[in-house]
Design brief:
single chain, 308 residues, mainly alpha, 0% strand, globular, transmembrane, transmembrane helix, membrane
Length: 308
């Protein structure tokens, strides 16, 4: 499929969607870098824009895990470039907080840097070295679902980002909220304690992050902001872990196995119905024969009585 050597589109996908899967992560990480540079250059008290664009689109950066690139060299280059852009953005934010002597934010962004490095290394290990297939498949409908949910969420968040009283940078909370909704669609196919524990913890930690962020917006209490950031770092690590775990077959029931199991259940049900109908037919025949024998005996007994 052209220059990128893409996989052929599957059900629920088309060629335009496959190219979008490649471009959107770059757009998301590029917006993250733009917002980081904006924050670094215009670090003033009266700014009304901080991280809004990247907060909206950062969810699309996670589409890289199922990038439909067939060439291993091209896929490696793709992951490395995305990692470099995202790491550059985190470094810019880190420099901003080093300049501001904010130790807590410095530690948080160092954690983000480490998590992103491990995530990229794990993606290269799974997709490039071992050529694992993704078990959580992204389709056109998921992309439109993300966009429709963003419209609702942003009606709540945009006033916060435009308020000069608040200092809100690029946050992953919206992306995490959309992603655990996306992961939940495949929960029936999860197997094993690790991936199920990760999804439950991911949901809980994301909820804590969102709740404490709103408490901070209302009360302006620093402890709420710090809890929100710590929860966001943990949720980011858990989200990456779920994406990596789903590559391994023993963490995920394949659709092929599910189809076999479903067909086996259907066959068993049909067999039971056939056996039931057969047994009913046989019992009916036996009842008819018994009725005939009974009537013959009654008639014979009646005739004998008439003779005597």
């Amino acid at each position: 499929m052209g220059f990128f050597d893409l996989h052929e589109p599957e059900d629920g996908q088309d060629r335009f969607f496959l190219y979008a899967m490649i471009v959107l992560p770059f757009f998301a990480t590029g917006s993250y870098l733009f917002d980081a540079l904006y924050h670094y250059e215009y670090d003033s008290k009266d700014r009304t824009y901080e991280g809004l664009l990247s907060t909206i689109v950062i969810v699309f950066a996670y589409l890289q895990y199922c990038a439909p690139i067939r060439s291993r060299k091209a896929l490696t280059l793709y992951y490395v470039l995305l990692c470099m852009v995202k790491e550059a953005a985190s470094i810019v934010y880190l420099l901003s907080y080093i300049r501001a002597h904010d130790v807590f934010k410095i530690v948080c962004y160092i954690c983000f840097l480490i998590i992103d490095l491990f995530f990229t290394a794990a993606l290269i290990h799974c997709r490039v070295i071992n050529n694992y297939e993704s078990h959580i498949v992204v389709e056109n409908k998921h992309l439109f679902h993300f966009i429709s949910r963003l419209e609702v969420i942003l009606t709540i968040f945009i006033p916060v980002y435009m308020n000069v009283k608040f200092s809100s940078l690029t946050r992953y909370t919206i992306a995490h909220f959309l992603l655990f909704d996306f992961f939940s669609d495949s929960y029936a196919r999860f197997q094993g304690i690790w991936i199920k524990s990760a999804i439950y913890l991911f949901v809980i930690i994301t909820t804590v992050s969102v709740a404490t962020e709103w408490l901070y917006f209302n009360d302006q209490t620093i402890i709420y902001e710090e809890i929100s950031y710590v929860a966001e770092v943990i949720a980011n690590a858990l989200c990456d872990s779920i994406i990596i775990l789903q590559f391994f077959p023993f963490h995920f029931k394949t659709q092929f196995v599910q189809n076999i199991f479903r067909n086996a259940l259907l066959f068993k049900k049909q067999l039971n119905e056939v056996n039931l109908s057969t047994s009913i037919g046989e019992s009916t025949k036996i009842d008819i024969a018994q009725n005939i024998d009974t009537k013959i005996d009654e008639r014979t007994h009646t005739k004998i009585s008439e003779v005597f």
